[in-house]
Structure prediction request, 137 residues.
Amino acid sequence: MTILTKHSKTIYSGTGRRKTSIARVKLIPGSGKLIINGLPGESYLQFSPNYLRVSCAPLRTLGLSKEYDIHVRTEGGGLTGQANAIRLGLARALCRINPENRITLKSEGFLTRDARVKERKKYGLRKARKAPQYSKR
Prediction:
């Protein structure tokens, strides 16, 4: 079960993935702080307004920006993959809080896992699809 009770506070959790990034998100009733790997969210995401907007989009859509503190453990990949993984984990946690949130989040596309990953390199090729220059003779 993903709903934990600690000192009379209910903790809701969700897992998000994108490329090789994994984010474990915990939502705790609070004031709207974002903590990623023990650091403030703004400094971890290098003060990028795009990464901050992407990772907190589900909360903003539901109008719950200042209702919950977000604690995230994330690993793998780069900042883009991690921000999108946080977004998916956050959306899944919000669905556990109230099943009616699912309709809004689904229509915005926050509950769809982006399955695009790097294609593997094939033998005889320089990259996944780039072939050496063809020589006729």
